[in-house]
From TrEMBL:
Stated name of the protein: Damage-inducible protein DinB
The organism of origin for this protein: Vibrio tritonius
Glycosyltransferase found in the keyword field: no
Top-level taxon of origin: Bacteria
Keywords from the UniProt entry: Metal-binding
Length: 182
């Protein structure tokens, strides 16, 4: 599988896993969604807010570098961090997550192997500046989502919820199929 196709697969995987975990979250009460998880982020909603904030920040970085996504694509997907409804409303988080995931999936369809080697200057949440190629940047975006969803899956299982199968070959089987050899 070429580099660009790998990112299409990862975008679909992330989109489907977000849907799967958010569906599990619908079974939690408001109190459970806001309960202190005694983990990296205070609550389940804090995890989802962090993932949204990080993804939108990274997409904005790509807009600034004029790589695979335009400012027009990102219109309406901003996240007002002072708007408290995103902090405690699962439905609003689900709606915004769907928008962002749709953008990420569409973005990956515009990638080429050459484009994956373009440079991106990025300032992380810790104010550390990084200069990397788009390939490494996208690996970071997808790995970051997978890392925190793994934490969420553990927390949701502690609430007694089954989040389902999370293995990539089961979640995105159509993109792992090899074309028949000639």
């Amino acid at each position: 599988m070429d580099l660009a196709s790998n990112f299409v697969m990862m975008a679909r995987y992330n989109q489907r896993m977000n849907v799967q975990l958010l569906a599990a979250c619908r079974h939690l009460s408001s109190a459970q969604l806001q309960r202190n998880t005694r983990s990296y982020f205070v609550s389940v909603l804090d995890y989802w807010n962090h993932l949204l904030q990080s993804d939108i920040t990274m997409l904005n970085c790509l807009v600034q570098h004029q790589l695979v996504i335009s400012e027009k694509d990102l219109q309406g997907v901003t996240f007002d961090w002072d708007d408290q409804r995103f902090l405690d409303d699962l439905n609003a988080i689900i709606e915004k997550r769907e928008e962002v995931d749709h953008l990420i999936v569409n973005m990956t369809h515009h990638l080429s192997n050459d484009l994956c080697h373009q440079r991106v200057h990025y300032v992380g949440e810790d104010a550390v500046e990084m200069d990397m190629d788009l390939n490494a940047f996208l690996l970071h975006l997808f790995n970051h989502q997978t890392h925190h969803r793994g934490q969420l899956a553990c927390i949701l299982s502690q609430f007694g919820l089954d989040v389902g199968v999370t293995d990539l070959p089961h979640v995105v089987p159509e993109l792992l199929e090899r074309p028949p050899s000639n």
